[in-house]
Specification:
Layout: E1 7-10, H1 13-23, H2 28-31, H3 33-37, H4 48-70, E2 72-77, E3 86-91, E4 96-98, E5 101-109, E6 115-124
Antiparallel strand pairs: 1-3, 2-6, 3-5, 4-5, 5-6
Length: 128
């Protein structure tokens, strides 16, 4: 399968707290709303890897075990994600297929169309 269906999720403050507990990253910019209001962000922001996980979810849905076994991402964080943002992970059709290796341009955007994360994801499928 070469086409990858987008994944859309709305990020909540509760998810930020749960991710902080799971990851051990309790930086107050993610979990302390009062503190975060005093920062240049003006409020809490999501952990970058929480948002990037949507790309992994999208790629796993398209490529199943192949993504788990050999999938790779190279991404850049471009803008913060805030609680209440609806984030869509999407991929362009693969740019190359070299020996079963598919390479996609991937991104996460918010409900305004702002790019939050962009990069590339690749996976080897079929006979290698």
């Amino acid at each position: 399968m070469n086409d990858v269906a987008p994944v859309t999720r709305t990020i909540s403050q509760e998810q930020l707290r749960a991710y902080a507990d799971a990851s051990g990253d309790h930086n107050p910019i993610h979990v302390d709303e009062e503190y975060a209001r005093t920062t240049p962000f003006g409020g809490t922001i999501a952990h970058g890897m929480l948002v990037a996980a949507l790309i992994g979810e999208m790629m796993y849905a398209a490529h199943d075990a192949a993504w788990s076994e050999n999938g790779q991402m190279r991404i850049r964080f471009k803008a913060p994600t805030r609680p209440g943002d609806t984030v869509t992970a999407s991929a362009d059709p693969p740019a190359s297929r070299d020996g079963g290796r598919l390479e996609y341009a991937v991104r996460c955007t918010d409900q305004r169309g702002d790019v939050l994360i962009e990069g590339r994801a690749s996976v080897t499928v079929g006979d290698r």
